[in-house]
Amino acid sequence: MSWFSSLNSVVIDFDQSHLFFPRIVITLIAILGTFILITHLRPVLRAMRSGQYQFFVQHADFMRLLATLALIPAYFWLMEFIGEWLPNMGLGFLLASIPFVFAMSMLYCHEKTRRNVTIITANAVIAPTFVWVVLYHFFLVSMP
Amino acid sequence: MEFLELLSPSYFLLAAAGSIIGIIFGAIPGMTATMAVAVCLPLTYTLGLHEGLALLLGLYVGGISGGLVPAILLNIPGTPSSITTTFDGYPMAQRGEAERALKICIVASLFGGFFSAIILFFFAPILADFAIKFSYVEKFLMIFFAMSVIASLSKNILMGVFSGLIGVLLSLIGTYDVSNGGNGEYRLMATWMEPYLAYGFSLLPVLIGLFGISTIIEEAEKGVKENSLENKVNLTKGTPFRFNVFKGQTGNLLRSSSIGTFIGMLPGIGGSAASILSYTQQKNLSKNPEKMGKGAPEGLVASESANNALTGGALIPLLSLGIPGDSTTAVLIGAFTLQGLQVGPLFIGENIDTWYSMVTGLMFANVVMFIAMFYAIRYIAKVVLIPKFILYPIIVMMCAVGAYAINYGIMFDVWTLFLFGVAGWIFGKIGIEVAPLVIGFILGSSAEVYFVKSLESYGEYSILVTKSPIALVLWGLIILSIVLSVIIHRKSKQQATEEAAQ
User: How far, in Å, are B57, B179, B180, B322, B347 from residue B337 at the CA level?
Assistant: First the structure.
């Protein structure tokens, strides 16, 4: 039974203990990943070639998708930028949110009638201001 | 009864407000209870513990319940769990019985909510008392069991396990925390990431990104189409609602609520599983199964009592073991941590007043949900009309506030939001499942501590099996869940091929 006790015993070096569990998890991911690749690669490739599997949904709206993927980071960046320029007043949030809410609403609105644009503009000013007043001033939530 | 002193008028006001805001979120198709909690998080930061909990529980109950409104009126489930409500709700609405259908659902929801709150009240302390005796070995096995259940219930077992492991790996990024007996070393990242990721990714920005931002990106991909209002139905005419519709439904109510509570207790399974299971059970046992799907009240009762029973059920493992039952409770666990609450086996015993106030809040939120929906349903039904182009920018804005303020002003948390928003959107397309990933992410770091500490102190692998009878039982359960899942998957595959052959 000596082979069992030698396999069974485990000593974890404290200096290296931060790597013990991650190594196990990575090994498992690697094994499982390879297994999934072997068993699923062919059917997946076949489905991709025949057009059964498509990454994007049918009739994807690439304009709105790409604009969204650009608008959100731009909003976060602007928020940080203004927040560093005018710190400790939550103005980074307020001044970045107004144009962001306006731009995103315009992007998502399909019928830009006069009525809708008025609602969008009013909402873009009122909603961030309301959140800023209530959360920053009454609830003391920190904002950039 | 000391806890009664803790319940101020503002406590009830916040529970009510939470419940109503939750209903509104639930009623808007695409918005879920998870998002309601995520968006309202910043409000809880400065509230006291009990007030914050009241708001969160209200949001949870309201968010799950609100989904029935668009399910009946527009044939779109407002939350995934109300999918089976559409089966009978929309046909009834088309017959002009919309208000009757709504009120049947509301009463069933209240019953389900109460039922599960009572089970929670009696069962969670027992489970916690039992779990107090757990050492690191059993705690690790408990997490292992939870993960095996999640993986086995995902669409593809292999991908479920894989997603769970990815979640665990993500949770390990950062330092091996000294306060947990680690050595304080960084791992799994390049040197330039250290200033940002020294403590790893924050839980809540990750969750808000995965559930909030990714939904917006998905919608953008689909072109943000407004719900067509052509098939919206008139509320005011048709057969009025009477309580006698529940005659003969006691068995259905009890069974569906039990199914909902039980499914809620299993970690990682969403509400849709609960309502689908109880709906099919009712169909199997019904006297008139052919009527179901064509506007039978019993279908509504089964669906709605099950998905509201989920609320109390999901809180059982959360409060007694620290294991979240679904995505909403995953966000709740983060919110509790912000309030300084450590949920786990010791929670109930050490915070008995908080525990009572939580159960009270849960019950009260159900009552408010009932009153608000039952008497104001006509007005609430109008929120399904709020256009998405107004709603979505506000949601992104609220997510940003929530993420930024979680650690008192860390911009990296806001970027985490975007990172995981995009990741969540891609995950859905390549077969990685978000539920196991999230549970893996939440439990990963504790799993590491329990696992490594057990091995360090005993020095042998076999201790994981031989530590105690409880460990053996847990292993039995783990094996059982794996075997069962393989059988279930085989069966459903067989059914699929048979159906394809027909």
Answer: 15, 16, 16, 11, 12
